[in-house]
Recover the amino acids of this structure.
């Protein structure tokens, strides 16, 4: 009797479970910010170990000089190997496994597709390498173009006369087709645009770097608020994390850090806007004073410097003359980092010269030459005194 009763009870319970509403699939909670940040830190460490192993193998095979020359490519190879063997194969990375988190691509908790994983790996490894390589090449070509233009400035008149006499037979030649003329015009426009990019990119590079840093900080601010995408490549690929470990009673959030970062970004934006407005006002007043218009004292308009301080007409005229004379006399002594006259010229081991403060700040961020990417250290920087660089 007990056995039958127990059997009936078990059957009724199973029937009730099957006859009721279908059980919903288990939904894992989203990963918290500390888990995502800890996993990213672990992955960076393991990727650095793989890169160092590739560098040692490359050094033993081809020598130290070749390994130093191709250090960026070796770093790309190490990071690509790490992420291809983990994320590319559909497995957890070592950092994700350590923190009990897993990648998902949609709000339904489905794993990312192979195409999305490959896209993330390209964003994580290849895109930064290509951007850095192309930027360094453009900067080097721009500097070489400026040097060649300065060297050929004396011969520009004779070359312009020679080239002015050459187009006449081309215009009078009846064998030139219309398509060829359009193609030549297109090539000329592309060549002109390329030369413009080469000339302007060294001056635009600091603004591009500031924009990238601002984008990274903005993404970090959104991560502190919503807790989804810690890195820009994961945001671009649409990959987020869920927590698959044991449920925790308390999972801290970092919204307060997002508020602090938002305040910092607002202060930086206001300061940048103030400086740009003051520099515009100062440059316009300089143009008016140099063009023979009434002076600022006669018009009652104060003259401001870039910091917003009022300066007199006499002092302003002297400083403007000194600035123009110094810029004219030292046209070649421009720092490629701050784009102004070099202060305390400092040479690196590869031979490039920068400002002392500029190259020291750069070396704190990246221990390599900004132009040729040669590894440098603080102790290898040499300050040059009594020079006309």
């Amino acid at each position: 009797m007990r056995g039958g009763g127990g059997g009936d009870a078990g059957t009724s319970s199973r029937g009730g479970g099957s006859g009721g509403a279908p059980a919903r699939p288990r939904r894992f909670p989203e990963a918290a910010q500390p888990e995502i940040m800890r996993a990213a830190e672990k992955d960076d460490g393991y990727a650095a170990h793989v890169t160092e192993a590739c560098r040692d193998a490359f050094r033993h095979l081809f020598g130290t000089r070749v390994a130093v020359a191709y250090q960026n490519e070796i770093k790309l190879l190490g990071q690509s190997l790490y992420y291809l063997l983990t994320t590319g194969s559909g497995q957890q990375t070592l950092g994700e496994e350590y923190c009990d988190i897993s990648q998902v691509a949609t709000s339904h908790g489905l794993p990312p597709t192979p195409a999305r994983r490959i896209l993330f790996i390209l964003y994580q490894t290849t895109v930064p390498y290509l951007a850095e390589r192309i930027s360094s090449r453009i900067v080097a070509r721009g500097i070489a173009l400026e040097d060649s233009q300065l060297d050929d400035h004396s011969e520009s008149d004779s070359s312009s006369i020679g080239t002015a006499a050459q187009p006449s037979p081309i215009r009078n030649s009846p064998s030139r087709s219309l398509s060829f003329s359009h193609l030549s015009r297109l090539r000329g426009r592309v060549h002109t645009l390329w030369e413009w990019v080469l000339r302007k990119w060294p001056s635009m590079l600091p603004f591009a770097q500031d924009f990238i840093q601002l984008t990274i900080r903005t993404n970090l601010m959104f991560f502190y608020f919503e807790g989804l995408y810690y890195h820009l490549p994961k945001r671009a690929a649409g990959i987020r994390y869920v927590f698959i470990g044991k449920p925790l009673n308390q999972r801290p959030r970092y919204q307060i850090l997002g508020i602090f970062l938002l305040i910092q970004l607002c202060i930086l934006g206001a300061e940048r806007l103030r400086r740009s407005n003051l520099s515009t006002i100062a440059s316009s007043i300089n143009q008016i004073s140099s063009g023979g218009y009434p002076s600022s004292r006669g018009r009652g308009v104060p003259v401001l410097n870039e910091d917003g301080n009022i300066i007199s007409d006499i002092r302003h005229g002297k400083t403007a003359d000194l600035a123009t004379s110094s810029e004219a006399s030292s046209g070649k002594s421009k720092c490629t980092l701050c784009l102004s006259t070099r202060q305390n010229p400092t040479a690196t081991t590869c031979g490039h010269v920068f400002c002392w403060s500029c190259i020291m700040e750069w070396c704190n961020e990246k221990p390599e030459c900004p132009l040729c990417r040669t590894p440098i250290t603080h102790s290898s920087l040499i300050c040059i005194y009594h020079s006309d660089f």
Remarks:
- The chain has 14 helices and seven strands.
- The first strand starts at residue 101 and ends at 104.
- Residues 162 and 236 are 53 Å apart (CA to CA).
